[in-house]
Amino acid sequence: MATDNTTSPAATWPRIIAVIGGGTMGLGVAECFANAGCTVRLTDATPELTAAAHRNLLARVHGHIAAGLLPPDAGERIAAVVAAPDLAAAVADADFIFEAVPERIEVKEATFLALSDMARADAVIVSNTSSFPIRQLAAFVMHPARFLGTHWFNPPEWTPGVEIIPHATTDPAITARVIEFLRRVGKRPALVGDGPAFVANRIQMAILREAIACVEAGLGTPREVDEVVRTTFGFRLPFFGPFQLADMAGLDTTASVFATLARDLDDPAFAVPKMFTRMLAQGRVGTKAGDGFFTYTPEERAHLLLERDRRYAALSKLLAELPPLSLSEGE
What we know:
With 331 residues, the protein is α/β, with parallel strands linked by helices. Helix content is 48%, strand content 11%.
């Protein structure tokens, strides 16, 4: 049974979505689209794997319903997801094709070459790759102007952010259409460049690299380092990114921390960034000066700090209400 699109977030575009790949990311994205009222077709490498993926999707959603994360009628929307027997059936007349096959370049190449033969010439094709350059994958796509990356994060049905990565010849109108659609289904898309690991994974890997360095230096165990991260700067990240946090801390104070790390770790990677040096020379030290990475009137600064405290208090209360997760630390 097809979903009625007349009142769905996809009422104008896309009418039909094909999700290629029934792993963790493909299932979560299919759940997100179906819950938003979109018509979704799901397929995997074989009919057997597709059937298994469809069963897993239904089980996943019913688990979310049982946990109170989704309303009971979500089951009806997910039941409408079509398990397409093969790639051709999945992409027939599809307006939007979401690739989530295994992260192996030969698999990606074969998939995009096949999609180029089977899909409509105007169908928008996106890849959820987390490592391959979008410009490299675009070489496998016929009419690459309709191709771009949309990097989702696990679990995709709950994580709001999606990186949008066009390549050099992606049609800007296509990029804008994808961004607008993702906003309609409740996501928070951000347009980023086609650099190594894009933005989120580059920053995430830098944090993990330094977390490992702290453990190896004897500063804490993995449990202790995780506790520090999640209860200090990590606690603030749902509301503010690193630039606004630096503004509130003071760029002069942040520059001093950089300098200490560069000196005591003997690591030039921590040298005060040139961007900071230029801004400090101009007196742009953050919120206290009304100018840093962002500008602030006195009224905006007062509102920002009050809103910061309100949000931190709400999150602190939520965390206090949740039971702790019990984890055993490895050797």
